[in-house]
Amino acid sequence: MVHDLLTQVSPHYFMEDLLQLPRSSGVLLHITCLPGPHGSGDFGASAYAFVDWLVKARQRLWQVLPLTSIGLGNSPYVGSSAFAGNPLLIDLDALQTSGWLPDEDDPTDCLSREFEEGRVNFDVVVPYRMSRLRSAWQGFRQQATAPQLEALAAFCQRESFWIDDYALFMSLQEHYATDSWLAWPRALADRQPAALEQARALHADRIDFWCFCQWCFCTQWLKLKRYANQRDVNIIGDLPMFVGHESADVWAHPALFDLDETGRNRTVAGAPPDAFSDEGQRWGAPLYCWAAHARDDFQWWVRRFRSAREVADIVRIDHFRGLIAFWEVPAEAASGRGGRWRRAPGTALLDAVVAALGPLHAIAEEPDIFIADVDALRRQLALPGTRILQLAFRTDERADDSAGNSILLPHRHEQDIVLYTGTHDTNTACGWWAEASEAERERARHYLRIDTNEIHWELIRVASASVANTAIHPLQDVLGVGAEARMNRPGRPDGNWRWRFKQDELLPWHAQRLAALTGLYERG
Q1: Exposed site from 67, 141, 234, 413, fewest CB < 10 Å?
Q2: Which residues form the catalytic set?
């Protein structure tokens, strides 16, 4: 199914062509942020309407956050699988149209009445959507045609290298209802063959359900992607650096991660103390056992890149710095303060990926400070880097390069970068301006000579005018919303990833104004 759908996509450009094609721009918006009737955005009608809006706005790129399953804190960056799609993004209306999903199972169920129009309430959305998906699975079992059954079987066979472990892992998580696979019976936690065989027989229906969800996810997403591609809109996907400990990958491949003899994390990922955090950060994701990855010629990573490329035209490599050096924190540490820098085999890893798959078609997400070896590796691989415009006006020197010049200021921009007004990890443009120090505001006013009554449109204008080949604007900046619309506050474990825009907020004049800037600065 995956490859059959891909062959139907009309020709479109990849990252290696960007330097030779007209300048382009796009919008950053995660799927969950779309409006819709089921508590969070999905691959339904609103997604297709958003593609149509992008076309009217002359935008050629739609950047999304990771489409993989979510993990702690509902984060899409540390999920339960490096390969599985997030089933919460499946369009329930399409399943109903297929005849598999009946009307609401229980009219007295108040869950759907607790949805919030401009916010994702995960406590409500997750059980509601999973309940509806289970109903759809039962309907599929009863009504599926022979071609549909064959398509599901073919998908599972093609993706067997990850979906067999994933579907069993999710089934066992449900069955034992524990926070960790380490609490399962020892034989299952240790993956003893007899225990796995017995579990597959015992939980066959649950396993089939999780496979069905992945098939629905893949089919629906590739249909949406094809719709966008045929309208000259290309998808920028996102490859997270880490997976959660409570993931199918760590359970199925423990030798690839830095675990102790009991399967617990020996070390975890984090960040060192800096100007923004005296204690540093402890992210909690298991670190990689790089020697084991190298012995296998980085095949797990090759498969990750191949999977990412099947669902996106361009792949943003999150935390690209982590492929060169990473902050190793002892698992028992309460913060990132006790960590240390360790080297990672980024060159060898990416060489293996290129040898297997060809050009990366990727963006290297760079830190907001200049790091020579990070810059050197992404240039060696001819990968565009990233810059964030709202960070250019800080009054500290964190973004200065070795010569003492800020790499983020517009006059330092180069063609081979992707320029963002902001990202999912920063405030919105309006939120940033409201919270900025007077010194930071004065630096921006003096440098840009701007009218700050519409700071969000001023930043979009400056990004559009930049020599950077690619400019990306979060939809929050197009709408001019404040800090309440921020997607993520790094270091805060709860309350993130919740913002949604309302149907009546995105208006034709937004597209007209963005299209005018795009035309003025020859980006579309």
Answers
A1: 141
A2: 318, 365, 425
